[in-house]
Amino acid sequence: MINIQSFNNIAVITMNSPPVNALGLELRTSLLKALQQSYESDAVDAVIIDSSLPLFCAGADIEELRTGDIWQTPDLHTLIDAVDNAPKLVIAAINGIAMGGGLELTMACDYRIARQAAKLGLPEIKLGLFPGAGGTQRLPRLAGLQVATDMILSGNPITAAKAESVGLVDRVVSDDVNFRQAAVAYCEELLNNKVQRRHCSDIQVDPDEVGHDFFIKIRVEIANNTVGQIAPEHCLTLIESTTLLPFAEGLEQEKKDFIEILKTPQARAMTHLFFAERESQKIPGVERETATREINSVALIGAGTMGTGITIACLDAGLPVTLIETTTEALDRGLGNISKHYDRSVEKARINEEQAESLKAAVTGTLDFAGLADTDLVIEAVFEELEIKQMVFEQLDKHCKPGAILASNTSTLDLDVIAAITSRPEDVIGLHFFSPANIMRLLEIVRGQATAPEVLKTALQFGKRIRKLPVVVGVCFGFVGNRMFEPYFREGSRLLLEGASPEQVDRVLTEFGMAMGIVSVADLAGIDVSYRIRESRRQQISQDPSYQAIQDKLFELGRYGQKSGRGSYFYEGREKTSDPEVVKLCEALASGLNIKRRDISDQEILERCLYPLINEGIQILDEGIAYRPGDCDLIWVNGYGFPAWRGGPLHYADEIGLKSVLAGMSKYAQQLGDYGKLWFKPAKLLETLVRDGIKLSDYVTSR
Ligand code: NAI
Questions:
Q1: What's the rounded mean pLDDT across residues 637-642?
Q2: Which residue, 473, 491, 510, sits at the end of a domain?
Q3: Top mutation candidate among 409, 442, 443, 635 for ligand 1, by most atoms within 8 Å of CB
Q4: Which residues form the domain of 633?
Q5: Phi and psi of 333, rounded to 5°?
Q6: pLDDT of res. 176
Q7: What percent of the chain has pLDDT over 90?
């Protein structure tokens, strides 16, 4: 866990606690002991703290947030105080990533030397927290208010070079040199120069360095951009306190606030998502020993919206892509869009021209399926029609080499039926991307009945390689995300018939924290797109004549949403304004359907949109379509704009109590007559969990 080595009068304490030197109780204890030993030894004049792992330290052990061991003695404050109050010079040698508590530890050292490749950050805000071991007080003193505020509020790390330029790091050395030797030499140099110990408490933060309205401006930005979240404002107040309070008082305040924020639902929600991400990669039947296949080339069938987006995601990850279309025209359009995308990236200085050219050169277009003979992974993204997809898969079966993985990006069709058309259903899998596919992080990996574990494992690796968050789901209409979306969308539209306005529905949902209200989402996704999906399942929805009646009407009127300038709103570009005609359409439809219009409370809108969504998620768990509640949460947070600080719909359900969800479902089943009876049936599992007093977080699937 810890090694101590002496280089003349310098003791080097090396952290060696794989995988990431998380500062859990054991490492804290060993570090403190090693420090004390070095302080007591007459032979030691200075101490270097470094790491034997590729990174320096990833920070606190997040697991301890759950267990409460974070406060076990020695806690991080005690360890950091021991560095700050050292009787000898202490130097941090930052060889790689230093995050959170890891960076906080280095900031209490007298000097910091870093390798060029090192990255330094305080990512606590991503867990709904703020740095709680001195970070908010030390970083502004060392790096200045502007940089500290940027780093703490974004959670994003900075490079060693940047850290050096702002004074957070004292020396940066090239990645080529022996870093240990460089650190020892630097320490010798400091000793020879008889440098003094340095304390952050001696540094005064000068508020004038950022201008008098700095905090006012950032407060406005926070209020606009992080509605509903409590951590950003807390962070800023603590940073601001460096201009108002002495160091010791600021530290005290930070610690007090940190204990409080840890107990908040928002911190619980975001740490839940952190753990859910880890858990989501554990898949029944996929073991450590399960083999994987090599993916060195990808082909996309269909160069439409999704095909081009997925191509860009693959190219960005360094994978060459073959793009297949039916006509030269469609192919050229697709290739042209990819080319334009990279031109825009050059304009925005995200990449240089040379990089853009080499990315463009890595995609090859063809009309001939024979071009797939050597491809490792083929992703089909043609029109959403079963016959067309089956035709494509017949071709793939004919042309692809044995062992190639054949994937479909279908969003609604039965993957097992598509797989069955091939002679190798074990090689078929669903890769359900979200639009825009090069940006959205979510990737639903659809596990077919026959999908081989090694195909699944390879798909998970591929997902991570192209920087997605892959979540494995089973086959059903809409998989997990869209299936949960369906009742949410249904209620959003039905409420318009009952008397709510599009603005009211959208406002309630955005106030709850959704990135966008459901009515605006429908306009953005295309009213024609959702209409076509309904067309394929009219029979299943025929019991309810009001089902998406307003959306069907808008489709009939050619109002396809944002793309046609009119949907439930008017659009000029992305700017939308209300359209009173939509209310008139709703009134007429309601009258024809015998729906009595009334004032609808915000509370009812929220409950009616969210409870059926949660109920569907629970039903999905019961059917084994999702492995864990956390998987549904990840899907909704990363693919559907559900607020991360609420932890996803199922975590939120636990927070408000499953009993309330069940009671709400029953209330609307009664209150809404036949409509209520039809759609507000509680999932069996919801009833069972409430009966047995079990939370979703404790639910373990029996499958
Ligand atoms: P699109 O209409 O933009 O593109 C489809 C492309 O496939 C067209 O360029 C067409 O020429 C081409 N194509 C049709 N038949 C072909 C064949 N036999 N061989 C080669 N190319 C062929 O459609 P979009 O939106 O890209 O959707 C594609 C698939 O992705 C669908 O299955 C859709 O359900 C799914 N999807 C779409 C999402 C979206 O937001 N648009 C999100 C997630 C999945």
A1: 97
A2: 473
A3: 409
A4: 481-698
A5: -60, -45
A6: 94
A7: 93
